[in-house]
Amino acid sequence: MYSREHALVSLAVGLTGVWALPLPDVVPWWAAVAWALAVGVGIDFDHFLVARLVSGDWSALARLLRNPLLPLTDPASIFADDDLWAIQRLFSHVVIAGGLVGALWLWDQPFAVFTAVVLYAHLLSDLAWDNYRLEEYQRRHAEHVRRMEQAGDAADADCTADADGTSDADATADADGRADAGSVVDADLESDGDAPDVTRS
Fold first, then answer.
1. In whole angstroms, what is the distance from residue 46 CA to residue 48 CA?
2. d(Cα 163, Cα 170) in Å, to the nearest integer?
3. pLDDT of 145-157, one tens digit each?
4. Residues 24-35: pLDDT tens digits?
């Protein structure tokens, strides 16, 4: 799910949370709602780190920095098809959410529960979105596998061509070496035949 939809979900959960939980004893209600928006949307910044680990570069982050409005205007263009897979970002979300909620639990339990509910809503909406787009993900995965197989076949062909070229070069060098050696021997024999016989007097 994209950031604008996560913002709406987080806002709804935040407003419900400040009404249901005793948060005013910890933070003002408006600060809690702002926190819900920040956490519910901001957790998606881990996508850029995951994309960096998968693709090997920061191209997705560079696209965002060149146009910070992309999450609102064209969120689908931020990441390439092979930059980020659903299972990878969900795994990252679970790791971050568990650590954040655990740390907040040591400070204030109602606020930790509030944060956990916001993040749970984020993960649940992501899972619902991914389930809705399952056929698209399967198509992308099949195309990814096909490209990887084509790249592997091309690499194998290059290796075979290099090996054949090396073998041909070695065979040519061996033939040239044998020809040169034969020429030297023939020349030596001719020289020996032309030389005067100094043993006769």
1. 5
2. 10
3. 777 677 776 776 6
4. 677 899 999 999
Domain containing residue 32 = 3-132
Q: Is 49 among the domain residues? A: yes
Q: 154 and 61 in one domain?
A: no
Ranges 1-5, 91-95, 115-119, 155-159: which has the least confidence? 155-159
Tokens representing 153?
A: 């076949």
Whole-prediction pTM value? 0.68
What's the token pair of residue 114?
């509030």
35 is written with which tokens? 């926190």
Whether 85 and 149 map to the same domain: the answer is no
Q: Which two tokens stand for residue 105?
A: 């639990």
What is the C-alpha to C-alpha distance for residues 182 and 107, in angstroms, rounded to an integer?
90
Rounded to whole angstroms, the Cα distance separating 163 from 182 reads: 28
Q: 43-54: per-residue pLDDT in tens?
A: 999 999 999 998
| Structure tokens, 90 | 């969900």
Q: Which of 2, 32, 104, 103 is nearest to 13 (CA)?
A: 32
| Collapsed DSSP state (helix, strand, coil) of residue 2 | coil
What is the rounded CA–CA span in Å between residue 83 and residue 56? 9
Q: Are residues 45 and 97 in the same domain?
A: yes
Give the largest Cα separation in the chain, rounded. Answer: 131
Neighbours of 91 (CB within 10 A): 13
